[in-house]
Design a protein that fits this description.
This is Nucleic acid-binding-like protein. By secondary structure, the chain is α+β, with helices and mostly antiparallel strands. It has 13 helices and 33 strands. Helix 4 crosses helix 5. The termini are far apart.
């Protein structure tokens, strides 16, 4: 069946549309930064098959993270330095240092793709720190007992580091390290998370990892010893054979199943809110059971990947009623004090995708498809991960993805564009917002899924956003493409560039316009140096807004308040804010614009509470103190061409919103 995408068709971008893209200062800097970094790249590394250059999304994400960290402004030197340093860490993975002989021999057979939170041993030495949710994918170099004690130590290495590190083994794994027959021995691969670092001291000249309960042993079905272990220990029990009566009599089970799905949830109990991971397992008979991780145990989920085979020795088995879980299964599994976990990792396939090295602005990923090696040097191949369902991961795609190039079964997508519609969906079960994003090639709808509440600050019509971690699927019901974004999803980020303080504080990220030159056709915030003309037109009022989303609220009959964006909310989430409309001017012309929130405070140089407490006469006289004050402002067209609704705008007559401002000294 032919699927129609929800796209405004524009098969050949005209000159005017092309110029809009080329004039965007931020996109221009991204291209410049990528060129600079590639020019610094060591020629000896360029042929490495493990790398495909700098992903467009990765560069944008690093630039924006730096902008958030340096809100007072950045320079090209700062941005390029941060990018270069971050990329050096990435290259450590792709271009490893001298490896130990044992690891070199195992590396040849390693076809796994790194888990999202994986860190290297070298990076631990450099930073003298490891985050609790970091993942270590390591090989046991040596296993021994400290002399005169019963303390087991594992010496670990990884595929990307020249350093090794010692781990104090947690006592729950001592039975597996019984030398020399234990499974935790030289050459065994394991995954770790939840680690704490003991830094070097006078008595110990190198750092060590403290014991962690969150260790998973990797098995290889192609190795005779591992195949025998799986056959002897995990093939006699199945989900259907589990009996609660037998469990109550002390019977334990060893189970083997495929990881079907991993979900996050927050559970509210008598003593507050706790985190939970729900892992759906399917055994060889097709029977499904839920494996739950609670509290700090959720770190274990960092070690799992959908499609991998999980072997559970002595899992804690509970009734669904006992766990207060709403599920169709009678029992569920948990990570108990005696539970041991083994994993046969899912090996992702690679799909070859053709990428144009000199694409035009409208090309994006359009060249996907069959690769013709005779086309000459204009094309280069990159390998992108493809799962068992045929979904291709574009998170490391070297070019910018645009709307017209989106296809079914794409994940890890990043988009840069303008918000033309945003609203909350009527769904009592989840917090879902519908957002329509447009670039110069078209527009598409994305559904934003939140764990609890909206958490992205104020987003409105005409704002320029960068959103990553999107998944594209074909909707059979609507016969169009739809994007899905999950707040806690892999690689998920959402940054509103229009409201970014560093945007107007950094000359390398914006172009300075005269008011007479600003265009309502642009897809980015336009920065101008202006002064205020309150005697021309001026309106200010204090209103209440929703603290989470920044949009205005109205009082309804019955005493409750309703947010124009999130709908009904509680009084505790309401704050006083400004609604300001004012005339801006420079030497070329004048323009009427509006603003709210922090931007209005920056222009008025007073808080809403202080202004509200002023006598009425002083409020009326206040504008005179602002006359001829000079500001740098970022302006967006809050009525873009493809905008569907203006419900979020307080005044239909004004086309310009001031999203950021600062006073010129």
């Amino acid at each position: 069946m032919e699927v129609n995408t929800e796209i405004v068709e524009d098969t050949q971008m005209d000159v005017e549309e092309q110029q809009k893209e080329e004039e965007d200062p931020f996109l221009n800097f991204v291209d410049q930064a990528r060129s600079e970094l590639l020019s610094l790249e060591d020629d000896s590394n360029r042929g490495d098959s493990d790398t495909s250059g700098y992903g467009w999304s990765w560069i944008v994400s690093r630039i924006l993270k730096t902008c958030i960290a340096y809100s007072s402004g950045v320079t090209p030197a700062i941005l390029l330095s941060e990018l270069s340093q971050a990329w050096s860490e990435q290259r450590r993975v792709a271009v490893p240092k001298k490896r130990l002989e044992l690891i070199n021999s195992l590396k040849k057979n390693n076809r796994r793709i790194k888990l999202p939170n994986t860190v290297t041993i070298d990076s631990i030495y450099e930073k003298k720190f490891i985050a609790l949710n970091s993942v270590l994918e390591v090989v046991i170099i040596d296993a021994h007992v400290l002399p005169g004690t019963n303390i087991h130590m594992l010496t670990l290495g990884d595929y990307w580091s020249s350093n090794i590190i010692d781990l104090y083994l947690h006592r729950r794994f001592y039975d597996l390290a019984g030398l020399p027959s234990g499974i935790l021995k030289k050459g065994r691969e394991v995954l770790l998370t939840g680690c704490y670092l003991r830094t070097a001291t006078e008595s110990s000249g190198h750092p060590r990892l403290l014991p962690t309960e969150y260790l998973v042993i990797l098995l290889d079905e192609n190795q005779d010893d591992d195949a025998m272990l799986l056959g002897a220990q995990f093939c006699s029990d199945s989900f259907s054979s589990i009996s609660l009566d037998a469990v109550n009599k002390g019977v334990s089970y060893s189970l083997y199943a495929r990881i079907e799905n991993i979900e996050s949830a927050e559970v509210r109990g008598n003593f507050g809110t706790s985190q939970r991971k729900q892992i759906t397992l399917v055994d060889g008979d097709g029977v499904t059971l839920k494996f739950f991780l609670w509290g700090e145990q959720i770190l274990l989920a960092n070690l799992f990947r959908v499609g991998s085979m999980l072997a559970l020795d002595k899992p804690y088995i509970a009734s669904s009623v006992e766990c207060d879980i709403q599920t169709s299964e009678e029992v569920c599994l948990e990570y108990g004090s005696a539970t041991q976990l083994y994993l046969v990792p899912y090996i992702q396939h690679e799909e070859q995708v053709c990428v144009a090295l000199t694409p035009n602005r409208h090309q994006g990923s359009r060249q996907m498809g069959s690769c013709n090696p005779t086309q000459g040097p204009r094309f280069s191949q990159v390998s992108l991960p493809c799962d068992s369902q045929g979904t291709v991961d574009f998170s490391n795609y070297p070019l910018r993805s645009i709307v017209v190039d989106l296809r079914d079964k794409m994940t890890g997508i990043s988009l840069y564009g303008v918000v033309t519609e945003i609203s909350k969906e009527d769904n009592n079960q989840a917090t879902v917002f519908s957002l329509r994003i447009a670039d110069t090639s078209g527009e598409i709808r994305a559904k934003l899924h939140f764990t609890r509440l909206w958490s992205l600050g104020r987003v409105s019509l005409g704002h320029t956003i960068f959103i990553s971690g999107l998944k594209c699927t074909a909707s059979k019901r609507k016969k169009c493409l739809e994007l899905a974004w999950f707040e806690n999803g892999t690689g998920a980020s959402f940054i509103n560039l229009s409201c970014l303080p560093a945007l107007i504080n950094s000359s390398c990220l914006h172009k300075l316009f005269k008011l007479s030159d600003i265009s309502n056709q642009t897809c980015y915030a336009q920065v101008c140096r202006v002064w205020l003309v309150p005697n021309e037109y001026y309106y200010v009022n204090t209103r209440f807004s929703h603290s989470l989303c920044g949009h205005f609220v109205d009082k309804k009959p019955g005493g409750f308040v309703e947010c124009s964006f999130c709908h009904r909310i509680s009084d505790a989430e309401v704050v006083r804010t400004f609604h300001l409309k004012i005339t801006l001017a420079d030497k070329s012309t004048k323009a009427l614009a509006w603003c709210t929130g922090q931007t209005a405070m920056d222009l008025l140089q007073i808080s809403p509470e202080e202004f509200y407490d002023l006598p009425e006469e002083e409020q009326l006289m206040y504008p005179s103190s602002l006359e001829n004050e000079t500001f740098m402002v970022a302006l967006v067209n809050c009525k873009p061409e493809r905008c569907v609704t203006y419900d979020l705008l307080p005044d239909d007559s004004i086309s310009w919103e001031i999203t950021r401002a600062y006073k010129c000294e």
